[in-house]
Amino acid sequence: MYRLYPRLPLPLAADLAISYAARPLEELLAASDCLHADAQFAPTGGNRASNQDMLTLQHLVRTCANHHGYPSPLSADKGRAFDTACGITLLEHMYLHPSEASHLEMWAFMTCVLVPNIVRWRFMGTSTTIERFIGSDRGLRRNTFGRLWWRTYLLQQPHLEHPYQLFNLLTEDDLVQVTERTGIAASSNLATAFCTAFLRAAQQHEALSRRTLLREAIKRLQRLLAMLSFTALDRITLDQTLDTVFAQTAQALIASTE
Q1: Is the pLDDT of residue 208 over 80?
Q2: Is 39 helix (H, G, I), strand (E, B) or coil?
Q3: Residue 90 vs residues 189, 199, 205: alpha-carbon distances, Å
Q4: By CB neighbour count within 10 A (0-12 exposed, 13-18 middle, 19+ buried), where does 133 fall?
Q5: SS3 73
Q6: Using CA atoms, how far apart are residues 140 and 149, in angstroms rounded to an integer?
Q7: Contact present, 46 and 147 (Cβ < 8 Å)
Q8: Which tens digit of pLDDT belongs to each residue from 87-136?
Q9: Quick one: what percent of the chain has pLDDT higher than 90?
Q10: Are 241 and 233 in contact (CB under 8 A)?
């Protein structure tokens, strides 16, 4: 059964995020809670998360952070490892329906009330931007935990022995390029097939810039999305189509250097 989580009104979340931006981790740890007087649940869509559910989630996220060095500063590699592990934890233990996971207010409760110290630690600096606590006008792409849940949801492959193997093969830039393209990220099937085709192409064309290959293939795919319903394709046809996209992209890149 899906769960519903408290939703914190964004104006209140913004005020909290601003006040938290430069505060020490220990102060934010002391400020964290499982309740907020102004947070409300959605009326339908699942069972309300209990106080024990919230405590368990809080503990799981904190434990994940501890395993990756909290409260010590994060290197890029450790930050990426935390993101992967935390994303899997959120997906497997929150029991969210995608409709519930699409609400900024729900993630704002998590970042501003439940574990604000983890947000500050993950994006430590002189101050942490409000985007990391709430999101932005581009949606959840910058919210510390919302982006991880959606990334993991989109790129999981539950039919495989290792359902999260793509996270070990893709770089952070690869993940950002794919998951922040709404045309691709609208479908988990398309997103996983595209990433798998990209990895095949990158291996076949090692002389080409991996980043350029991906970005140019995305442009080519976005043009096709306007003409072809990728969701209507069976997996074999989808894989063949995407392999063709990458083959044509690679050929164009090679030709441009000759």
Answers
A1: yes
A2: coil
A3: 20, 26, 35
A4: buried
A5: coil
A6: 10
A7: no
A8: 999 999 999 999 999 999 999 999 999 999 999 999 999 999 999 999 87
A9: 93
A10: yes
Give the three-class secondary structure for 8. coil
Phi, psi of 220 (to 5 degrees): -65, -40
Residue 65 above 70 pLDDT?
A: yes
Reported residue count of the chain is 258
46: left (phi over 0), alpha (psi -120 to 50) or beta: left
DSSP at 142: G
The label of the residue with tokens 């309300």 reads 48
C-alpha span between 214 and 39 (Å, rounded): 41
pLDDT value at residue 21:
97
Of the pLDDT bands very low, low, confident and very high (cuts 50, 70, 90), residue 257 is confident
If DSSP codes are grouped into helix, strand and coil, which group holds residue 3? strand
CA nearest neighbour of 153 among 102, 204, 112: 102
Q: What end-to-end distance do the CA atoms of the chain give, in Å?
A: 57
User: In terms of Cα–Cα distance, which of 13, 194, 21 is closest to 114?
Assistant: 13
Q: What gap in Å lies between CA 224 and CA 222, rounded to an integer?
A: 5
Predicted TM-score (pTM) above 0.90: yes
Contact indicator for 176, 83 with CB cutoff of 8 Å:
no
The first and second tokens of residue 8, run together, are: 């914190």
